[in-house]
Protein: GDSL esterase/lipase
Amino acid sequence: MACGLKICLMVFVVGNIEALVDGAPQVPCYFIFGDSLVDSGNNNVLETVAKANNLPYGVDFPGGPTGRFCNGRNIADIIAEHLGFDSHIQPFVIAQGQDILNGINYGSGGSGILDETGQQLGARISLGGQLENHQTTISKISTILGNNQSAIEHLNKCLYSVGMGSNDYINNYFMPEHYNTSRQHNPNQYASLLIQQYSLRLRALYNYGARKVVLFALGLIGCAPYELKRNIGLPCVPHINLAVNLFNNKLKVLVDNLNQQLAGAKFIYVNTTGISTTMGFGFRFSNAPCCTVSTGIGEGQCLSQQDPCPNRNEYVFFDAFHPTEAANVIMGGRAYTSQNPFDTYPVDIRGLVQL
Ligand SMILES: *[C@@H]1O[C@H](CO)[C@@H](O)[C@H](O)[C@H]1NC(C)=O
Ligand SMILES: *[C@@H]1O[C@H](CO)[C@@H](O)[C@H](O)[C@H]1NC(C)=O
Ligand SMILES: *[C@@H]1O[C@H](CO)[C@@H](O)[C@H](O)[C@H]1NC(C)=O
Structure:
């Protein structure tokens, strides 16, 4: 072929860019903050009973157990797949080198918005601790990209998701044998206290360059097998669901406030309760765990090395708290592409990443 070197190179480069655009994820990076619903191995190295790096956890995950509190993929994995990433986002504890440019998963089982939350389980990384880890990541990104300005530009383009608060109820407010919060605050005061603290943390995240942020509301904790066992005889525990609803309603208001007050901020709300209520009807077992669960401290996790139920796709819950992969596929799918006007607010993740 007769062509000058320069033109040949251009053809080559343009062709390659097109290939990259076709296969590239919709955002260059995805950062994940949360608890055991997203933890993908950060707790493996912590001294805690909130660990999931043993079978039957991971029974359906390629390569087996990783620390995910699920038989297979968790909701952050499902969202990363919808975004077009060709591998899951690495947990903070093992991510290194150029990998961190794709994002990091900071999730930690047992953690909450309040630092004290989950302390009876052992070590965990609270939302505040996860933000400190994010600062470490940011300085590494600055080093890789050569300066702070490029790091900020990169961080502005990423997607962020935060799912926090379940443990502030399960492993704090509704555990009066270990925590005083329910004696100090009524449910409305407690929800306000959590939202106030959450708001401070989310504003810090914004100050670290986050613009597109997905906030997961809390699920119906009062319908989880764990709470049903503690409150025998009820289909769901109404006072727990009412308390969680107060939090969720305030969280939706917080989304509006952050979008109005922070220039360029695009926060969205995922209606976890609404999605799980409507998807529950599609499963044969919506309030029984698939695996045999433990008792005592750390109660409700799968007993190590015991065979789980064979028909995992028929269960909403894998252990007494955590959804099965089958439930995560639906939840993550509807957070990404909402199926009705209630699923996400004001837009779904697919819409958010296009903004
Ligand atoms: C980059 O940011 C860090 C911390 O925010 C700061 O200490 C450092 O001086 C900054 N470097 C440059 C070149 O601006
Ligand atoms: C709860 O309150 C009691 C009595 O006021 C106090 O002794 C205890 O340290 C408190 N526990 C926690 C976890 O704050
Ligand atoms: C969540 O979805 C349900 C219906 O699925 C709806 O009734 C409820 O109002 C929604 N909640 C919020 C806070 O948008």
In short: The chain has one domain: 5-354. Residues 87 and 267 are 25 Å apart (CA to CA). Residues 179-180 surround 2-acetamido-2-deoxy-beta-D-glucopyranose (ligand 2) (CB under 6 Å). Confidence is low (pLDDT under 50) at residues 1-21.
